[in-house]
């Protein structure tokens, strides 16, 4: 079990080619993002800004997760009200975060399992490039999300309350294997 203070010191000195997280006291390494990741993120950012200009989608914002904020996670995106993370520093509390976004890479075995539900974040969006799908997870409890809806790239994806937007994913068919 790695103490949070040790993790934060290690993460500060980590090269930009690696993303570290502390989940359940264990160090996790996330894959480096490629150009398609960035393109998909920018697509989602534009969708969010078009439909909800009152919200910001922050790339790789560090979040304090788990009981007593002892975990550290970096979702690919964190959707929150505008200016929500101003003055928060590298690791911010999860209160006020409406949705996290993660993406698989072609070399990932699976998306990292982070405790966003236990932190009370209402929605989790997982974009799976290998299968060409979106998983929209909602209704968090203290352990997991109780509801999941799966969409194929090309379908209209309905993001429920509190985000309450629908996005057309046809463009994303260009970024699958």
Q: Radius of gyration from the CA trace?
A: 16 Å
Average pLDDT rating: 84
CATH architecture tag: Alpha-Beta Complex
Q: Looking at this structure, what is the CATH superfamily?
A: tt1808, chain A
Write down the overall geometry. Answer: globular
Structural class: alpha+beta
Amount of helix:
10-25%
Q: Quick one: how many beta strands?
A: 13
Number of helices: 2
* Major sheet details: 6 strands, mixed
The CATH topology? tt1808, chain A
Protein name: Putative restriction endonuclease domain-containing protein
Domain Putative restriction endonuclease: 4-163
InterPro entries: Nuclease_put_TT1808, Uma2
Pfam families: Uma2
Tell me what the structure shows.
With 177 residues, this protein is an alpha+beta fold. It has a single domain (33-175), classed as Alpha-Beta Complex (tt1808, chain A), CATH 3.90.1570. The chain has two helices and 13 strands; from the N terminus they run αββαβββββββββββ. The chain has helices at 4-12, 35-51, and strands at residues 19-23, 26-30, 55-59, 62-65, 71-73, 77-81, 91-93, 99-103, 123-128, 133-140, 145-152, 156-159, 165-168. Strands 3-6-8-9-10-11 form a six-stranded mixed beta sheet, covered by helices on one side. It has a three-stranded mixed beta sheet with strand order 5-4-7, with no helix packed on it. The protein has a two-stranded antiparallel ribbon with strand order 1-2. β12 and β13 form a beta hairpin. The longest helix has 17 residues, at 35-51. It is globular. The N and C termini lie far apart (37 Å). Residues 106-113 have low confidence and may be disordered. This is Putative restriction endonuclease domain-containing protein. It comes from Streptomyces microflavus DSM 40593. Residues 4-163 form the Putative restriction endonuclease domain.
């Amino acid at each position: 079990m790695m103490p949070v203070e040790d993790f934060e010191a290690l993460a500060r000195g980590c090269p930009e080619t690696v993303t570290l997280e502390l989940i359940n006291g264990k160090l996790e390494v996330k894959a480096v993002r490629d150009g398609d990741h960035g393109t998909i993120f920018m697509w989602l950012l534009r969708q969010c800004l078009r439909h909800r200009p009152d919200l910001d989608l922050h790339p790789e914002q560090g979040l304090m997760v788990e009981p007593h904020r002892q975990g550290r996670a970096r979702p690919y995106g964190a959707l929150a009200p505008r200016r929500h993370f101003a003055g928060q520093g590298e690791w911010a509390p999860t209160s006020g975060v409406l949705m996290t976004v993660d993406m698989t890479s072609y070399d990932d075995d699976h998306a990292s399992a982070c405790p966003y539900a236990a932190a009370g974040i209402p929605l989790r969006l997982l974009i799976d490039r290998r299968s060409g799908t979106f998983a929209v997870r909602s209704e968090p409890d203290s352990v997991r999300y109780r509801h999941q809806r799966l969409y194929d790239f090309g379908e209209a994806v309905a993001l429920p309350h509190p985000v309450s937007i629908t996005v057309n994913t046809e463009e994303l068919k260009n970024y699958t294997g």
